[in-house]
DNA sequence: CCTTTACCTCAAGTTTACTTGAGGTTTTAG
DNA sequence: CTAAAACCTCAAGTAAACTTGAGGTAAAGG
């Protein structure tokens, strides 16, 4: 049983069948068809779906994921090296994100310590505001890559 | 100048005026009105907006944020203790999230190490799949709080 | 005073990521 | 062989988080 039906992939990946259809239209996964026009997925599809779900945890959009997947072959199972370079790429991204969250956590710690009643020395609030200078405000740790 | 106009809050927080209107309809921020029916915000509004943006980084929805804000007074500036208990709550959440991302990062590291050609020992893929047992699949680290 | 900039409200539009449903075909289990 | 379960396509609906636009009022600078 080399190939899997859409229902099998769905149940083993914990997603709905409709989600897999959707991912296929987005070019995130690929299938061939059997005699009766039903989808048949290679086993690597499950890893793709796992990676999609993992990446979404990091706040990565499907478009970006698709872009990252673009280096992988669509219809043949990716090689070891190909998976590895993808995984490495995600991990770099993931570690950046962890760092940012850590920084945010530190800011909150400062916030808890400072009391923040005065708003003058709150590290969260004052990360950019500098006590009300003209210009852009306390745009804090977000907005690294054009989120708005 | 104790109170701020919507435009001032917007530019100092790095968000659009329409976003502040939107947040107000959602009950995330509050304003009084001047003689000409224009909004006037207390300075604590900026901290609220900072916290909203920070929380969004953690994947917290506006509804949840609103719920967390519910403990704060709407029209009077929150006290030190009130801010602190909020910040502490966020930080617990934040640290949980960091832990999860760390776990994901570890899985990816395993993935990079194992090569994953066989799919038999990939820690990312096999976190729940157990080599194809019947039942639910490699539902990995997500889905902690009914995300789908 | 007058014009430009900032505000106001309310309705409708946008994007992302899916889900639901209708109407019909294929597989599979008994 | 037949009935239920699984698939198929395509269109439309949903939810979150905003944004845009129209039509009109207020405030601020010269």
Automatic annotation (TrEMBL), chains A, B:
UniProt keyword annotation of Iron-sulfur present: yes
Gene: soxR
Taxonomic source organism: Salinimonas profundi
Keywords of the record: 2Fe-2S, DNA-binding, Iron, Iron-sulfur, Metal-binding
Lineage: Bacteria, Pseudomonadati, Pseudomonadota, Gammaproteobacteria, Alteromonadales
SUPFAM superfamilies recorded: Putative DNA-binding domain (SSF46955)
Boundaries of every HTH merR-type domain copy: 3-71
This protein's name: Redox-sensitive transcriptional activator SoxR
